[in-house]
Design a protein that fits this description.
Layout: E1 4-8, H1 11-22, E2 30-34, H2 41-51, E3 66-72, E4 78-85, H3 92-97, H4 100-105, E5 109-114, E6 128-134, E7 140-145
Helix pairs in contact: 1-2
The structure holds adenosine-5'-triphosphate and magnesium ion.
């Protein structure tokens, strides 16, 4: 699949791109969010949560590492959204302490993972990868890829 590219000029626009992206998400999906500090990963997650009508205020799980939100599909079905931020993780050992692979395997939740490069080896291959880059003028380039289609998913 060709990467999808979007350009955003504001945090609101980044949220809207996240909201539109969310309409393709299914139970169990994993979304990774990459890009430097403060580039807008959490703004994108806010957009995703807005699609699922999350009532809670979506804050960065920088210190809590994991935030869980209760959302609703447009058809009224409930969906749990797990927002993980590995930025503060210091060692691989902490990955098992927080139970990262268990969280990522949850079949009924949508999982959004910031700083996935700290989860080396824990991620399965099929996931949406959102990468955000900042341009010098505050705009953002948002790239979305999904390399392995659902149909190729191997259940072990
Ligand atoms: N086009 C844009 N898209 C998103 N955020 C923007 C944009 N322009 C400016 N901003 C600002 O950049 C900041 C992005 O913060 P956010 O918490 O989403 O970043 P982050 O990538 O999650 O950072 P961290 O790695 O610390 O979690 C916000 O303060 C937002 O107002
Ligand atoms: Mg963040």
């Amino acid at each position: 699949m060709e990467p999808e590219l979007y350009s955003s000029s504001s945090e609101d626009e980044t949220q809207s791109i996240g909201t539109r992206f969310a309409s393709r998400l299914h139970r169990g999906d994993i979304v990774t969010l990459s890009g430097e500090l403060g580039v807008g990963k959490t703004e994108f997650v806010r957009g995703v949560c807005s699609y699922f009508d999350v009532k809670d205020i979506v804050t960065s799980p920088t210190f809590s590492i994991i935030n869980v939100y209760e959302g609703t599909y447009p058809d009224g079905n409930p969906i749990r959204i797990v927002h993980i931020d590995l930025y503060r993780l210091k060692s691989k050992h902490e990955l098992s302490t927080i139970g990262l692979s268990e969280w990522l395997m949850l079949p009924d939740a949508i999982k959004l993972l910031e700083w996935p490069e700290k989860a080396n080896g824990v991620l399965r291959r099929n996931y949406y990868a959102v990468t955000i880059r900042a341009l010098p003028d505050d705009r953002r380039i948002i790239q979305i890829t999904y390399d392995i289609p659902h149909t190729a998913q191997v259940v072990s």
